[in-house]
């Protein structure tokens, strides 16, 4: 299941900054109120919230449990801000979900899909001034039980322009 993504500014390796979400139809992470995370999306049906509250402010942390193994939690779900996306849930540590979602700080994923299971692949397409042109990333579970995109040794690196003549201003 490859999907097209474009790198915004991958200068180093992709950092393990993402969220884990439950399987199901794509759901919008965009809030109706700026700076607010909503209790919506497929992942919210796979966990138990401590209250009936449906809207959470930026920087709020909600401790959720997993119905199939309530003794293993609770796990933190953090409402955080993502540049150009607004409020999004960081639930990368909610072990029962076993999912990666579509947000990385340097990558824009196709909005048609927002949730990816362990082993799912995505395709990163580097911007024109970067190389390589593209590479695959895979959703994986880390030793600490978090879920993140693994890019292997790949990264988008900016191409340097080689001057044909020496510029005397350069030293």
UniProtKB/TrEMBL annotation:
Stretch forming the signal peptide: 1-19
Assigned keywords, A-Z: Signal
Stretch list, region Disordered: 22-41
Lineage top rank: taxon: Eukaryota
Name of this chain's protein: Sushi domain-containing protein
Organism (species): Chelydra serpentina (Snapping turtle)
């Amino acid at each position: 299941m490859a999907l097209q993504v474009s790198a915004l500014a991958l200068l180093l390796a992709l950092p393990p900054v993402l969220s884990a979400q439950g399987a199901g139809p794509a759901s919008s992470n965009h809030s109706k109120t700026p700076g607010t995370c909503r209790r919506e999306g497929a992942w919210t049906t796979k966990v138990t919230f401590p209250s009936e509250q449906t809207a959470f402010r930026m920087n709020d942390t909600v401790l959720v449990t997993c119905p199939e193994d309530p003794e293993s939690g609770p796990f933190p779900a953090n409402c955080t801000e993502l540049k150009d996306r607004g409020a999004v849930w960081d639930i990368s540590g909610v072990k029962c979900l076993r999912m990666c979602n579509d947000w990385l700080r340097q990558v824009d994923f196709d909005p048609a899909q927002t949730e990816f299971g362990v082993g799912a692949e995505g395709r990163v397409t580097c911007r024109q001034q970067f190389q390589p042109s593209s590479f695959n990333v895979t959703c994986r579970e880390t030793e600490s039980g978090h879920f993140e995109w693994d890019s292997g040794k790949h990264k988008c690196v900016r191409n340097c322009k080689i001057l044909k003549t020496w510029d005397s201003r350069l030293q």
